[in-house]
Design a protein that fits this description.
This protein has 8 helices and 8 strands; from the N terminus they run βααββββαβααβααβα. The strands form 2 sheets. Strands 1, 2, 5, 6, 7 and 8 form a 6-stranded parallel sheet that branches. A two-stranded antiparallel sheet has the order 3-4. The relative contact order is 0.16. It has one domain (about 1-215): Rossmann fold. The chain is an alpha/beta fold. Helices cover about 45% and strands about 15% of the residues. Helix 2 packs across helix 8 (about 200-215) and helix 3 runs parallel beside helix 5.
Length: about 220
């Protein structure tokens, strides 16, 4: 069985009442991937905004595999120390990673965030040497629209992330950059300028699906 682990921040964990891009990708793979697979990870909850904590299990589809490693307000800096044990314990084959906004917004600059990426990759491979990874660039967000220095850091980090993925790519443990979701618009694909709504969830899922199909022939082009 192929085991996917979604890794991310608030856009990946999602909140109560949302389907999440994890769900959209799972539905796509159910329809297009020919073998057995599941989503895994040490966490299962959605974020509950009223409780201000990841305590909700209000998933719309009871068959959806809930496993993930995502947290509201967490970034590469937070996940790098956790990824090794998560990969080892859950025997993840493919990591689907969407991180960076939190690091750049609150903790580290583009170069420091890239150091966290390298630590993350090294820890994941130490736990499972043949693990595959798909990395998503930081998506458009409302802060970048009015904070020019932050926007510059996001653009710089996305460039560094692509270079790092190329530098660290290995035949036995491929590292693939997903293309930014096409036509992603914070006004129509998010509900608050940052977090994806239904159309945004589909576009992020499509970015991961297209990357895996193009790189490894896994699944099929995204059909929604």
């Amino acid at each position: 069985m192929l085991r996917f682990m979604p890794v991310g921040d608030s856009m990946t964990i999602g909140s109560a009442g949302e389907h999440t891009w994890r769900y959209r990708l799972w539905r796509h793979l159910c329809a297009t991937y020919g073998g057995p697979f599941t989503l895994v990870g040490p966490r299962e909850a959605l974020y509950d905004k009223e409780a201000d904590a990841p305590v909700s299990y209000a998933y719309a589809d009871p068959d959806f595999p809930r496993g993930h490693l995502a947290g509201w307000g967490e970034g590469w800096l937070h996940m790098a120390p956790l990824i090794g044990e998560a990969v080892r314990a859950h025997r993840a084959d493919v990591l689907l990673v969407s991180l960076g906004l939190i690091d750049l917004g609150f903790y580290t600059d583009a170069e420091q965030t890239t150091d966290s990426v390298r630590d993350f990759v090294a820890a994941a491979r130490a736990a499972r040497p043949r693990v595959r990874m798909v990395l998503l660039p930081v998506t458009p967000n409302i802060r970048a629209g009015h904070d020019a220095p932050f926007a510059a850091q996001v653009a710089h980090f996305n460039e560094l992330l692509a270079k790092t993925a190329a530098d660290l790519d290995e035949t036995s443990s491929p590292l693939v950059m997903a293309s930014p979701p096409p036509s992603y618009d914070i006004h129509t694909d998010t509900y608050d300028g940052t977090h994806p709504n239904e159309s945004g969830e589909h576009k992020i899922a499509a970015a991961f699906a297209e990357a895996m199909h193009d790189a490894w022939g896994l699944g099929a082009p995204y059909g929604g």
